[in-house]
Design brief:
InterPro entries: ABC_BtuC-like, ABC_transptr_permease_BtuC. The protein has 351 residues and is mainly α. The protein contains 14 helices and no strands.
Length: 351
């Protein structure tokens, strides 16, 4: 007579709690764009926000609004909010992937110098080569990001380097690429181009168009889907190379499979939105406490939370000093740097 094993009440309760928390993140992601549109240099009443959105979605609301309000909501703020969702999702899941691949809780695109490499590639394309197409700039940014990634892994070491060693290698590589970017900007004959690139290096969604925002969203969805499918590989890599080999996974090959699309996605968002740091550090750590350590759920949660976080960071950036705009990278840096210090201080020096 066979006995059917049933999950314990504790396991069932934890699974239900994680699903509810994930549902909460989904609700926040749905509500955030609608609420955040109302804030900015010119505030818009919530009923008019809903009316404009409903009108452009093919509905016929009863209220009325003027053309300026329509332009503010649909042409100015909606594209940058959608771009913020995509950028935040990419940075959030990139942090999850990098932390698993290098087995380092401090890994994320900005700390490891990946964003700095992408910035150098994009600045080279814009100023040195004279590329104006989005695809060309994104391609050069991808090459810069990939170069920085392999430089950090080569210097910091994936097997014997400590967490602090990898961070120091990332900071060194980041400084190298930042210096190169500054040199490229200084060599520009156009002061206007130099100022534009400098502001863009600190992160901004102010000039993102509808087409670019849709492209960023597609990149985010593609990267999240890929990493969700690769979640068992990420679980194995996070457990160590021996664990990966024991389940039939080649760690070196899987690292390449994951690092190349992550670098490509980071390169694309840096090319369009500039350097925005620490999102990939803050969000995965918070989500591990919120939804658990399994990468299948962690990837989804980090993507959703990263999207919500960056949209509100962008809302704050365009509101706090309005009509002037604060670069998003300043906000994420003020939040992320103390977070990084706290993580480093908690680490075991013997590791």
């Amino acid at each position: 007579m066979s006995v059917v094993a049933h999950p314990s009440p504790v396991v069932v309760s934890r699974a239900r709690s994680r699903r509810l928390r994930l549902a909460l993140l989904i609700v926040l992601l749905i509500a955030t764009p609608v609420v955040s549109i109302a804030f900015g240099a010119a505030s818009v009443p919530m009923d008019q926000v809903l009316g404009v959105l409903a009108d452009h979605l093919g509905l016929r609301p009863a209220i009325t609004w003027d053309a300026i309000t329509d332009a503010i909501v649909w042409q100015n703020r909606m594209p940058r909010i959608l771009a913020g969702i995509g950028v935040g999702a990419v940075l959030g899941v990139s942090g999850v992937a990098l932390q698993a691949v290098v087995r380092n809780p401090l890994a994320e695109p900005y700390v490891l110098g990946v964003s700095a490499g992408a910035s150098t590639g994009a600045a080279t394309a814009i100023i040195v080569v004279g590329v104006s197409s989005t695809l060309g700039v994104a391609g050069m940014a991808f090459l810069g990001a990939l170069t920085a990634t392999f430089m950090v892994l080569g210097v910091g070491g994936r097997r014997h380097g400590s967490a602090l060693t990898l961070v120091l290698a990332g900071l060194a590589v980041g400084f190298i690429f930042q210096a190169l970017t500054n040199l490229i900007i200084f060599s520009s004959d156009s002061p206007e181009t130099a100022r534009s690139v400098m502001f863009w290096m600190l992160g901004s969604l102010a000039k993102v168009s509808w087409g670019q925002s849709i492209w960023i969203l597609c990149v985010a969805i593609a990267l999240m889907t890929m990493l969700w499918l690769c979640a068992p590989w990420l679980d194995a890599l996070a457990s160590g190379d021996r664990t990966s080999l024991s389940v039939g996974i080649n760690p070196a090959a899987i690292r390449l499979v994951i690092l190349i699309p992550v670098s490509a996605a980071v390169g694309i968002i840096v090319a369009l939105a500039g350097g925005i740091g620490f999102v990939g550090l803050i969000i995965p750590h918070l989500m591990r406490s919120f939804t658990g350590y399994g990468h299948r759920l962690l990837v989804v949660a980090s993507g959703l939370a990263g999207a919500v976080f960056l949209v509100w960071a962008d809302t704050f950036s365009r509101t706090v000093f309005s009509p002037s705009e604060l670069p998003i990278g300043v906000i994420t840096g003020l939040l992320g740097a103390p977070f990084l210090l706290a993580l480093v201080s908690r680490m075991n020096p013997a590791r």
